Amino acid sequence: MAEEYKYEFFNVTFPAEYVAHVEINRPEKLNAFKEIMWLNLSKIFRRLSHDPNVRAVVLTGAGPRAFTAGLDVQAASEGSTLGPAAAGTPRDVARSAVGIRRHVLEFQDCITDVEKCEKPVIAVLHGVAFGLALDMSLACDIRLSTRDARISIKEVDIGIAADIGTLSRLPHAVGNASWVKEVCLTARIFGAEEAQQVGLVSGVYKDKEEAVARGLDIAKLIATKSPVATMGTKEILNYSRDRTVSDGLQYTAIWNSSMIQTQDVKDAMLSGLQKTKPKFAKL
């Protein structure tokens, strides 16, 4: 199945039944992103979302040095959207703004495709995890980290407000507004222990090997559950995050009015009575 997932700057493997491992693969540049990479990330997660052979995904970076150092600033500065205008053709401010807005929205949508993936996604932060590393990992469902992770919301250091998702998602992921503003406004580097203390990550492990192994173990466990149930759980949690409790309850009732009729409920109950391991049909 891996042969079907050939995308530049990414390795996609299937280390266990119903589990996909997506690895950002540009280690010589600390896995820094240029445009083709976020476009390919979108394609990969859109495909995984509807792949009946996948029920959980682990996201990591290649090599020991970085999950990702964020945006490749040099590549971005040379691009057609953010690069210098052609000689003798001064830019109209409004037209430049329209082009930049379209570019940012496309970039945001590519990262949001990770969040929209129907399958639970587990990010493993390791080494350098700057800027875009937070945008991507906050779009994931579960975040783990290595002890050596160096994490930073770096954008103010290059003169911009982070615009690909961190400023919108981080306040929902961490219940400390003061801490959120501090790290976003200072761009200071913080470690895994602090990230766990505020709830940004749910587990810290001694090295990348151990953290990835833990991520895969979680993915394997999720993959044994009903794909109808895990998809619904993720959908309802994400929906409820941005709405009132009342809205979330109403949506849950509507969702389960159809999804609770799945054969998976009967299979799960029967396996519990018979002390057997249930096998669920592909979604």
UniProtKB/TrEMBL annotation:
Recorded GO CC terms: mitochondrion; peroxisome
Cell compartments where the protein resides: Peroxisome
Pathway assignment: Mycotoxin biosynthesis; Lipid metabolism; fatty acid beta-oxidation
Family: Belongs to the enoyl-CoA hydratase/isomerase family.
Keyword field: Acetylation, Fatty acid metabolism, Isomerase, Lipid metabolism, Peroxisome, Virulence
Name the record gives this protein: Delta-delta-dienoyl-CoA isomeras-like protein
Keyword presence, Metal-binding: no
GO molecular function, one term: delta(3,5)-delta(2,4)-dienoyl-CoA isomerase activity
Taxonomic source organism: Aaosphaeria arxii CBS 175.79
A Pfam family hit: ECH_1
BP terms from Gene Ontology: fatty acid beta-oxidation
